[in-house]
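Problem: given the chain below (371 residues), write out its structure.
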Amino acid sequence: MSTTDHQRPGSAGGSDEAGPAHGGPDEDHTPEQLAAMDRVERDRLGARYDGVEVLHVEPGPTPGSKLEKQATRLVTFWFLLAALLSLAFLVVYVGSGWFLPDWQWTVGGSAWSAAFTPLTGLFMGLALTSVGIGLVVFVKKLMPHETAVQDKHDGSHFDRVTTSATLLGGLDNSGLRRRKLLTGTLGFMALAFGAMLIAPLGGLIKNPNKGNPLGTTPWAEGIRLVRNDGTPIRPGDQQPGSLETVFPAVTGGNRAADAATMLIRLRPAQLQNLQTPTGQEDFGYGDYVAYSKICTHAGCPVSLYEQETGRILCPCHQSQFQVTEGAKPVFGPATRPLPQLPITVDDEGYFVARSDYIEPVGPTYWNRESI
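Solution.
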């Protein structure tokens, strides 16, 4: 019997008469008997035993007909468009920072940064839409249509073998084996579409500590301390007992989340009682000290300073740090001192950093000591 003989009703040659209500037991047909049958015979046998009743069959377009060729070109168009849109997504997503401008989310950033997310969303959305339209058109215009009913029952080896024959029959009826252009386009679309879906996962497995982003800040040797408006600071600009929030004089320094620093000028009485941590005796300059503005508990800005007590207060959870004792916590949930920035003055008499912070700023995290 030919494997393309589908004269019986059903998309894969299923029986037009309902069989028993339950699948045939394995003892009725041994594996050897099933193996000796061709696919169509197993398909029909499975339909008969599975209680399949085909109510109506509408065959697909005649192979080689004008109608089939038009439908094939239409389906090919949608699958090819989905593949091209998937590639466009990959070009934008992977190419950003490689052969395209780098993408960074910043307030008032570049046009590319503003367009990156809309472009990736647009290309992915259109690719998904094209795949959906292509599948609908494929099923509507190229696949045979049948209406059938089947009783539900538990599966067996017999059912698995006959079901596989039915699935293979469906593949044969789809015409993919002889529609080479459509098959090639479908494969191309599957590769591009799959790559589009997998590519964003790269951001989840990327090492977040590459370049030690949690352990470094924009501060570095020779970088000036400037106010929010960009003006530099000299030692005589502040009154004893005052605090000034300063930032590194680099592009975007006043917007860097970990760069905000408190420049404090101590009063004479505080200077006499100053206790510096071991190894940080020369981190200050004269009666000035500089500490990170980021609380070591939860990352809030510690911007409240009590001149009388010399305590820096965090308004979020009420942690307090003693400025004359290396900004160690003396109250509240914080457990680490505020990191101190080593400072000096340059040839023009302006404050500059001698280096970056020697420890990560902000809240503690599980591997802080290892980076």
